[in-house]
Sequence to fold (136 residues):
Amino acid sequence: QSQGSSSGSRTSPEVPDETMAKLQRLQSLGLINIDDGIGYAGSPAFFLKTLEFFRNSITYKANEIEALLEAGDMENYTTKVHALKSSAKIIGAYDLSEKARLLEYAGREGDMEFINANNGDVLAVYRHYQDMLAGI
Fold:
């Protein structure tokens, strides 16, 4: 049966109830995957640290991706969107990870039309995680 469906379900002592409620809300929207994230991180506490690191690096990394694209540095741009793909996957942000994968592939293929059409939207989604993960 599904876990956590009863109001008396046990939560990890490492994760405060209000934080878990927020994580479950994000998961219900398909924005993260708690079980997969904990699996990648190794524990609920490390998952929270991973989410915090992910959130705290968004502005810098998104700006870096934009600057590399503007500079025409496709090699480093492709490396950075590959890193975004991986870090999004680690927190269970599969839609964002897939979008970054497509940018990575386009970067490797030199498909500037695809990159120019999609980079802004992907970075907007990425930046939105800063607000969504606030307080975690």
